[in-house]
Structure formats: structure tokens, C-alpha cells
Design goal:
heterodimer, A: 423 residues, alpha+beta, 3 domains, five-stranded antiparallel β-sheet, four-stranded antiparallel β-sheet, 8 helices, elongated, B: 262 residues, mainly alpha, globular
Amino acid sequence: MEHSSRKIWEQPWGYAEGFLFAIGICLAGIILQLSIGKIEPALFAFPVNSIIGALFLTGLLAVHLLAGKKSIVRWLSGVYATIPALVLLLTLSVILGAIQQQPQGTAKELLPPNLFGRLGWYRMTTSWPFVLLCFYTLVILGVTTLRRTAQKQGWRDIGFYLNHLGLFTALLGGLLGSADMVRVTMSVQEGAVEWRSNNSSGEKMELPLAIQLDSFLIEEYPPKLVIIEHETGKMLPVSRPGSYMFEGVGKTTQLAGCKVEIIDYLPHAAVFRDTSFTNVVPMMMEGAAEAIRVKVSKPGLSQPVEGWVSNGSYLFPHSVLQIDDAISVAMPQQEVKRYSSHVTVYTEEGTTRQAVIEVNKPLSVEEWMIYQYSYDDAKGKYSDTSLFELVRDPWLKVVYTGIFMLLAGALFLFIAGPKKRRS
Amino acid sequence: MTWDAFIYYAIGAILLWGAGAALALKYHAKRLPAILTLAGLVVFFFFIAALWSSLERPPLRTMGETRLWYSFFLPVAGLLTYLRWNYRWILSFTTILSAVFIFVNILKPDIHNKVLMPALQSPWFAPHVIIYIFSYAILGAATLIAIYYLAREKRISDKSRMMRMTDNLVYTGSACLTLGMLMGAIWAKEAWGHYWSWDPKETWAAATWIGYLIYIHYRLKTSSSNKTSMILLLIAFALLQICWYGLNYLPSAQQSIHTYTS
């Protein structure tokens, strides 16, 4: 080590001081956590977060202008301070990634009453050590970037600024903005108009916009057939459950050692069943189930078994076809391919907008993004209720500015590679 | 093309890659090893493309499908390293590692079906996952070099050349890691309402990213030790493994919305 003859805290500082600094910040965080508990994001909502942000930026600038040449600031804007901060941030991230996190709204009494709980590890992202360490990293990023501006600029500096300023912007925007973010859900019935929403703790909240659900549609994948074990309901073969997706009448497939032939298919059927018999008839109305008639043969079976299989609906029971004492043919719930809501959105200003909202295709109305969130599970494809999530994040532009700078910075690194070393 | 045909294409590709790797070790001429490796890649990619077309969706949903791409990108990373830095061992390394992932897929095949849940139906799906798996392969190649270095440190004559090689691989790999992560963030905003939710997968992706940032920053000091640098690479790659599949074995994984096995 180059500083081996140097005592600790004696200039110039190195990694040892970096680790002591970063650990000290964590300890300060732990003391705060133990004494006043976790951070309440609501306390930092606008304008508090903006004021903190402005003070933070002014402070960084002041440090750079007034003390930029001091050895401690030079040390803070270098690798010796950066790596320890990253190592501790990594340590907390590993804990955060290993311990099951509890929702932010969880009452303190419901958290496991152990040391991890007191240290804030079950809600790491609002714990003092984590947030203070993030701000410490931001300080390092800030002074490093400012110090670079005082140097002679070269083309490689473009990559440096994009990466460091980009991360600084995204991280600061994300940290400060989280207090202003609003996420609520809204359940709307077909034909109805709704403007009241629920937040994560179940409180009602009226929104400055209303959603009218004109229609709600679910598209499903074709039904599948599987062989199951009676007793357990497990799909066979246990090691790698097989399934067959319906492709049309007349096809034949092999499933778990059985030959399954598709004899008939009813997309809209009524299923009547009691202990001894099952009857399936076509029925064109809401609540109809899908049914497939199959013929199954299996080595050791004297003659093939034939009958209807259905996964039922909220009106009709599901129905399996017993092959022998041990196994049956069954039709699991169909997987959803697409679900979409045709909506008309009204705002307080009097504007009206018609749109289709589906997963991955949110609608942006004024400050809000409206997401397709869920539907009435119990009614399945006949659901007439659509559940939306509405999100308002005024700081998104700041974070996106940072993200796009980082994206450009990553492309720069990809093309430019590491700095050539003088060997 | 169904999954059952995989074994034939896989064996064909491994034979071609193996022949390329053997020739690279034996002779100095780079053309034949490169052509053989490339031919193996064509065979392997033909299978991926045919599977893609038969599934009617990008084969990137299940763990087995990501392993498939990893087996493909490892020889790509090996070939690039071989052609660029003339490092003759690398093709053998990447072929062996790729074969390991192929055998996992043959012995423990995943269930492949056409189902693609609505959350994955996005133009971001393919680029987000492919660029991640590509970066995993590049960083895997860097890890192989690190292991080689740590095992034979005393016998390596040109250490600085080796460090340049890992630096280059890590810069490329980390750049792709960053691109994959940020594409994921933009996609998450579209699909889940927030660009970063500290989902276990996201947390471990951040941890992996920080791991490679530590290596990159550590290497900036000319006084840094080569050995420590290589150990940092091993730690970062261990984090990457947890992010990729290891977290399925952690208690926190139950909460992950990054689970797509139907």
C-alpha cells in the first residue's frame, strides 16, 4: 500500500478514511433509526423536498467554490472516498435484496420484533442509514463532477459528465421525488363513471379526473388439456408437467403416456354435472364455459374413455374426465392474452378524451398516468369491472433527464472503452 | 421447431465450437477457428430463430430460454475477445461454459409454450432481456480470465495485457448492463407505473451494477493491485448470478413480480 507509512487521518487520506467516513454515516443513520424511527416520506412532500434539493445543490456549489482546493474536498471527489461509499451501498443493497421487505404502510407492531426490524432492514428504502448513504454518494458524485469542470476538458469528459451528472440527476430526482409520488387504484364498472380512488392504506381520495368505462374486453389463449393425479391434483409427469393447447377438432396428442384425441369443441357451453354423469350443451349467453370432448386411450386400458372436459365459469362447475383410478384429463384456467378498457376520461377543466388502456399501454392525462391494473378475477373473462392504477409523479422529468444522460453515457462507454494506460 | 430438436442443434454447435477452440489452441492462424465458431453460432441461432417462430413469441420468458441465449452469446463474447486480443485460450473457456448451460437445458428442460402474459407484451421485452444476457456473457468471459489469472498469477508474463483485456470486457459488459437496466426502468414505468420499485430482481441488478462500478473505479488508480481487481470481478459475477437465477432461492423472491413461469 502506498500510504503504509502514514498514520490514520494524516493527510493525504486514502481508503481507510473513506471506509471510516462511510461507516460513520451508516452509524449516524443507525442512531437516528433507533431514536426516531424510519423516515416518513410524507414529511418530505413538496415544498420540503424542493427546499432540501435547492439547499443541497447550493451547498455543493459553495463547497466547490469556497473549498474546492482543500485536501479533504479533493479526497472526497476521488476514488478513495467513492469506493468505500459504493461498498457500503452494496452491502445495504444485498441486505435489502435478501430480506423480505414489508410494505411501507405496515404498522410497526406487525414487523418482526428483532434487531433487523429495529435497524429498519424490513423497510430498507426508508431507513436512515440507506437514505443517508445515498445522499453521501450524491455528495461525492456532486463534488467529483464539479471538480472535473475545473480541469482541462477532453473528448473523454463527455462520457464522464453523462454518466456522473446523469446518475446524480436520476438519483437526486428519485430520492426527493418519492415523497410527491401518488399511486392510487380505481375500480370502474362497465357503463359507470368514477372519480373516487383508494390509496394503499385503503383511504378514499377524490381525483381531479373521472373515468367512464365504455367497455372491457378480455382475450384468452386457447384452452389447454393436462393429465392430473386424482389424489393430489398434480399435473403429470411431475418432473416436467406436460400440457396440450387446443388447436382444432380431429387432432391427436400424447400426454403423460396417454393418447388424447380431440373429438369435439364447444366455445360456449353449459355444463351440468353430478356424481355420475356430465352433460354439456351449447349455450350462447354470458357465463358460458368452454368444453372439449376427448377420447383417451392408454396402455393397459381395455377400451378408450370418451367424455367432456371443461374449466367451467362463474356459472358452471369445472369438469374432468376420469381415465382410471389414478388419473384424469383436466382443463386448467385459461391464460389471459390481453385485456383492455375502452374509456372516456373527463377532467375538471372540461376536456374529454376517449382511449383504450391496456397493460403496457397506459394513458397520460394531464399530470396522471392511467394504467390497466386488474379486473374482477371471480368473473374471469366475463368481468364487467376494470381496475385502474393512477400514478402522479411530478419529478419524473428530472429522473428521465438523468436516465437518458446515463443511457447516452453507457453508449459512450460501450464505444470508447477504458482509457488507454501509459505502460 | 419444438424443444425436442434442441439436442441435435446443440451437439452440432458444440462440436463446431470445440473444433474451433482446439484449432485456436494449436495454430496461430485465426481464420479457421473463427469460421468454425461462427458456423456453430449460425447452427445455434437457427434453432433459436425456429423456436421463436414456432412459439410465436420471443423465447426469452423462462429461465431455460435465457440460458439458451446465454449459451449463444458466450461463444460470441469468446470470438470477439479472440479476434480482438488474440487470446487463444478464451474459445475453449467459452465453449466449455456454454456447453455447461446447454447441458443444464437438456437435463432440466423448461416448459415452453406460446403463452406470453400481457405484462411481457411490449417492444421493450426482447431488447431488455437480450442486452442483459449479452452483458452476462461478456462479463462471464471477463470472469473466466479472472479465474485463469488468479490460478496462474506467477506464471503469467504479460500481466498488464491481461488487465487491459478484463478492463475492456468489463467496460463493454457494464455498458450493456446499464443499457439493459435503464431500458428495464423505462419499461417498468410503462407497465407497472414506476421506474424503480425495489423488486428483488431490481435490487440485485443494482447490486451487480454497483459491483462492476467498484471494479471500474478501483482500476482507475494506477497503484491498485491486479489480484484485488480480479477478486472484485469474481464478487461482482457472484452478484450477477444471484440476480439472474440465484434469487429464486432467497426468501425475498416470493415478492418478485419478475417471475414468468406459468
